[in-house]
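Researcher: Next entry in the queue.
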Amino acid sequence: MKVLFLTKYDLQKFGIAEPLSALSAALGKLGVDVTVYSSDPSARAGRMGNGQPCIYGPMPRPHLLMGHLAARHIARLCRREGFELIHCHGLYRPGWAARAVRRLADVPYVVTSWGDIVPTSSRQQRWSVRRRCRKILADAAAVVHPTSVIAEYSRALGRGPTESIIPNGIDLDRWRSTQQQCPPRRLVQGPYILAVGKLVEQKGFQVLIRAMAQPPLKGGDARLVIAGDGPDAAAFKTLARELGLNVAGGLDAISDAPAGSICFAGFVDFATKVHLYRDAAAVAFSSQYGEGFPGVLLEAMAAGKAIVASDIPATRAIVGRDSAIFVPPPQEQAWAKTMGEVLDDDERRAMMEKTNGTKVEQFAWTRVAQQFAEVYRAILDGVQGRQTPRPSGRTFSITA
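Model: Structure for this entry, 400 residues:
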């Protein structure tokens, strides 16, 4: 079975890169040959971080001449390479491309919708976009939602012929082996709260920085370590300095950063990220809105860490109140109070650490990939039988 993943995102770092590479590898072990196609320049490397093959090419834009030409390019690729199925990661542009290819090359497609269909998206405010999304969903061979929340957003637009809820996953073997190989020395001397992600306002790092200037964190022993980079990095550093907080940048500088510092580790490789998770006192996920399936939550669970998370639909769908403490997203005083309490309450932190270390097993890529493979086979069996796959009444899902 040959499957083409379609996406418009960076394949080397941030958000979707790690899930796509890990899912591709896990599917490969089940006999599913996956190639990832992206319109992001990162795909020019020809290989993703774990060696999975990828292809760089144009992604169609709806109702533009160049969009139709790009769709023909993907259709020719499918014919030449023998791709039997397209799995588009993202509803709108990848979905529109897959729908066009289906008409050109008769290749069925699966849609996985992410944060691109949340109601707060400016794109989803446009009637023309919602109309196209309905057509994409209606013509899909199957629609897969990472959480029940995303399923609700999608159903508000329209329904596909079959629907499943299959979450994102995590490579637990890789996490655990890397964790064991981490040197005993700490990268940061002293207790710290870890936050990981792309440095953009949506992720809420500014709220965490302001919280560090509030009691009880102000004057306390903890540091805030932020791992990642992005367009708002300079603005976040400026904010920290304006609040009178010490700013340390880079792994060398954060090693001896004093208590109360905001430590910007920058973009880190996988081993360094695991090392930072291992020694963190807790993990903060402060995204303000618009999340599909935050991978940071799975990483924190894989590391067996206590989580303080924004009280938004995406986090509630993945972690429960036994796994995390929820905080109103924009309220820095509430963040300061909650993070201070977590740091001071060893017993509560230990309970969350134990729960998360066990709960993460259900998100292992081996289990997730098996469910995707079943969806793919059901579709191709229907194609070979010259009939449209019908809902079987079975839902492939892992629930948090």
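Model: The mean pLDDT is 90.
Researcher: Noted, moving on.
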